């Protein structure tokens, strides 16, 4: 256990089940910087830096030294022979010119094609990168971080990773000046949240399938409800009642208290100490999240419209609490009854219920957060909220993640 985790863990240990074994999770956090000045391919160093970040976002690997030299040579309209001669002089490269052309170059153009969205080759790379750079005023900065959590084993092949969300105070809702802010996100109010654990990812189809075969608590569950199939894709086409049943079965199986997050817990966890529209900053990009990239937010740029879910964590970046996919991919269900605004909302992070009915007796609308792969970017903001019928389960983009409570149990 690291010294950092040990210190943090001691704060909460008295409230935590002894069966939970803490672990340190390493992850990457991303922040978007908006550059108002136009980028030109004539500034090769700046373009190569941006392109290198885009390659990393796509492949989780930066361009090698040889690949960078091939690209720089292509931008200078050099022949492969000239590029090869330069590399031989300045780098330890023992392969043939044909290997450089067909293996190194071929793979490079393939990756750039995926990033730029048009077929790239050595002849057109300069013009296509110039067009790409001109439409891309965003720079993605990455840094390494660590957070504490635990792994809930389900079976030999399936586990649930839970991140410790430290308690704290935050301002919930959006300020009136935030772009696309809505009345339902106001008034802003201060909320103090107790520590809890939250799923690192939305619940996956593999996790759902395992829990769905456990003994019934209140209702039957379809073991394979999702439209966009994939063991590591988020489960979707589930209702609020289905999600509550999932939590009940998981609690019974593990002996721990699992539930849906309250709306305040969800926003606090999503923001992870930030006050901007997204935990990425003032805008969002499809290089970091799965939403409808045909639309933009603020100074953002158009991107990819995938039209379907992606595997959880596939963008390789989390927020400061180590949570992935908090903007887009699937909507995430919360416990609360729906309210049109925050007038009279609790300030202790608890779910806002209009009655003391048991969960399965509730008939009011519930709350969803996060936006989805089918959403415009403004819908994916940290503060955005929408209501949903608790019975509705037809949406191919509605999922959830789970809380494991610390120090208090919702009954």
UniProtKB/TrEMBL annotation:
Residues 45-131 form the vWA-MoxR associated protein N-terminal HTH domain. Gene3D superfamilies: paralog of FGE (formylglycine-generating enzyme). Pfam families: FGE-sulfatase, HTH_VMAP-M9. GO terms for molecular function: formylglycine-generating oxidase activity. InterPro entries: CTDL_fold, HTH_VMAP-M9, Sulfatase_Mod_Factor_Kinase, SUMF_dom, SUMF_sf. It comes from the Bacteria. Coiled coil: none annotated. Residues 161-403 form the Sulfatase-modifying factor enzyme-like domain. This is SUMF1/EgtB/PvdO family nonheme iron enzyme.
